[in-house]
Amino acid sequence: MEDHTRCSDTDDPLDSFKLPKGKGGVSILWPSKWSSKIKKLKDGNERVIAVNITSTNDICLINAYMPTHTTNSQHEYMECLDIISDIIQKYENTHKIVLAGDLNGTLQTSRANKHDKILRQFTGDVNLTTGVEIENTHTFFHHAGNSSSQIDYILVQDKNLVAEYKIEDKSSANTYIQLPDDKYQYSSKKNNKGKRYSYQQQ
Fold first, then answer.
1. Its domain of life (predicted)?
2. What is the pTM assigned to this prediction?
3. Is the dihedral of CA 5, 21, 194, 67 positive or negative?
């Protein structure tokens, strides 16, 4: 396997032996045999990464782990969306755009905290959708069972990219999408240690 990974402390100026144990990050994984078709991009930050995938329809895949909703967190949240917007504007004329990850905001109108409102406005502004209607299945479950929500998404500008969108209820593979043209699948996988996003070829 090959990967494009950034951790929360990627830009930490401390010497390596003084660095605290990593607490999170974002990563895109793919089989080594695909590496000739995948280019890691320098765009992004420790929460946003991207790769370009050469195919019949070239794809710019953006993976994000957005800030958790806390007091005044909307400022950092909007900064990450600005970075995503810059990547979209840079590549949307030459690539199909796919945004995937833990967006820590929901597109469902049943909830409306600050992140939710900002995310819905943003996805409308840059024309990102799930491509098809999706079920009201939650992808996040609080460890103590206090709450749950749908905050993990795979979004596209071109709805023709999406053949199927399936969310597995409380499964290790929470979100699944199949791109019809090149028989690629993109899955968002969760476990107790974090998240992993990877393309799978049929």
1. Eukaryota
2. 0.77
3. negative
Residue 63 near residue 41, CB atoms below 8 Å: no
Q: From the DSSP assignment, how many helices (H) and strands (E) are in the chain?
A: 2, 13
> Six-digit token pair at 131?
């491509």
Q: Are 37 and 55 a contacting pair, CB within 8 Å? A: yes
What the chain holds in terms of domains, given with CATH numbers, is: 2-201 (3.60.10)
- CB contact at 8 A, 202 and 188: no
Nearest-angstrom CA–CA distance, 9 and 11: 5
pLDDT tens, position by position, 134-175: 666 665 555 556 665 677 889 999 999 888 877 766 654 445
Instruction: Of 12, 8, 53, give the one whose Cα is nearest residue 30.
Output: 53
- The arithmetic mean of pLDDT across residues 27-36, rounded, is 94
